[in-house]
Amino acid sequence: MKKTVILFLIVLFISVYTCFLTYWSGSYVVLDPNWQEQTVLTPESVQDSRDIYVIDKWIYAFKMYPVRSITFLLSASGVIGFCTYFVRKMIRKRKNGNTLF
Question: What is the pTM of this model?
Answer without folding.
Answer: 0.78
